[in-house]
Write a structure and sequence with these properties.
The structure is a homodimer.
Chain A: H1 2-8, H2 14-25, H3 27-32, H4 35-42, H5 46-55, H6 61-73, H7 89-110, H8 116-124, E1 128-133, H9 136-148, E2 155-158, H10 161-170, E3 175-180, H11 187-198, E4 202-207, H12 212-216, E5 219-222, H13 237-256, H14 258-272
Parallel strand pairs in A: 1-2, 1-3, 3-4, 4-5
The structure holds a DNA duplex.
Chain lengths: 277, 277
Amino acid sequence: MLQLIENRLKGLSPAESLVARWILAHPRDAANSTLAAVAAACEVSEPTVIRFCRHLGLGGFRDLTLRLTESLSQPSSFVHRDVNRDDTIQDAAAKVMDSAIQTLVSQRSLLRNVDIGKAANVLARARQIVFAGIGGSGHVSDDAQHKFFRLGIPCSALSDPPSIQQFAAIAERGDVLVLTSNSGQWPELSAAASMSRQRGASVIALTDPTSDLAAAADIPIPCGSEDETSLYTPRNSRLSQLAVLDVLQVATALELGDAAANRLRRTKMALSGDLTA
Amino acid sequence: MLQLIENRLKGLSPAESLVARWILAHPRDAANSTLAAVAAACEVSEPTVIRFCRHLGLGGFRDLTLRLTESLSQPSSFVHRDVNRDDTIQDAAAKVMDSAIQTLVSQRSLLRNVDIGKAANVLARARQIVFAGIGGSGHVSDDAQHKFFRLGIPCSALSDPPSIQQFAAIAERGDVLVLTSNSGQWPELSAAASMSRQRGASVIALTDPTSDLAAAADIPIPCGSEDETSLYTPRNSRLSQLAVLDVLQVATALELGDAAANRLRRTKMALSGDLTA
DNA sequence: CTGAAGCATGTAGCAAAACTACAAGAAAAT
DNA sequence: ATTTTCTTGTAGTTTTGCTACATGCTTCAG
């Protein structure tokens, strides 16, 4: 959470960044204060504080205090520190692993406020699922397709804008489009989301909750909106995306019940050769 | 916190113990609800809920929600428990995330005994790097190729046995073959590793350290050897593989020094449009 | 240089939420 | 049976978070 605030710092207006800096300096106080107290301490008005919360993708001030206490209580053993050129190889390795772990830990708490059941419900009834993403997110989509087809649902994965737009043009009611994007700022993806919805398909978006894409989707799922600033930091958000898609797959399997369980069992057996016997 | 409530249970009046039991049964709901909602759910009056809070030594209802989110986010050390069909969607989601985190935590300690520097050294001097894997590991290879090319090293990714064997047949000194396999038991991969080495190429294998493939490689890197037994457990080892490849990429970048740093910087700028200006 | 448009910020008011005071009823003690 | 005490709910008060609107600043076209 604090990490998230720090990353967003430069994108905020003067008054709001005042709030951000005060919270970063007194996180413990902020978590236990009232809206009025925080506004007074920052010497800004109350609505400014609320607007600050909204810019972070939170529901309001109440949400902020909850998230703050949450992140303050988390173990700090895997806090992320950037790799720099003077690190030894072993230090760098530990840092990269730590940041990966930290990413998943934050994603875990992000998911607490998401209605996974709603997404699972839609996915379970899908006529077909199309996973789509550009660049690195394309590989995430491939992975998802490779995982969901085992539930017996027709699946495909698209990773270039022309294909994605073509699909949007022929999407039908019952189709589910799952879009993955780190920033959520590619206009092509938002356009595909809008057109698909217009044609009656459902759109799930794994992306920054404040992005255009999230706004264009039926079911936005906040995902890995963290930093990615440092030169040597890998794109950890894809790990979040993969893990969230795992969550969705498991949730969908539970929703589908025995039928899905049997298919999963048979796919496992296929690999160990038990089916041929 | 939940423990504390349980201890105090018998010392409470009837109406208050109603509240206590409801909170113990629905801690997550309680943390996100309002006083009125909790009172309604327990079928008691609002002051009763407040009195309950005071009996616990808390300041009020506000305090209760804070403390609850706090203790709920204290990850139960992310120990892995299998998802089963009776889990609620939210429970299943937490379990999936926990198992993903646990996988990375163990991978982190596995890496402590691996000479990353040796692998980075080989990679940094490579004429070309070929990433190869079958099935799910194929996507991991794609991701790696998509990441390493930014260092300026010629890279490709192969994900089917025929292609992999063809590459092994023409591998040369200076080429590096990075094989990824969960079990390390596909004979095709071990054969490709042996032939590549025989022809003077280096072979790095991300796999089970006791496997045939690990034995056939120059530099084996233990990776995600955990079992993936349960029906609903995702293949977490691929998260380990991705993270380890991140580590290798960062290590290689550090080994290459300024040249790689500049290339990384330019690839970042390309995305934000700064190069065209 | 002027005026319009858009953005940032604050003021005032509102609805809800949390909390308090008090009273009614039940159980226990005299 | 009467008083006392303890438990619980009702009604009211204060606080809190939030929204609608207005003001002022910046930016940019003409």
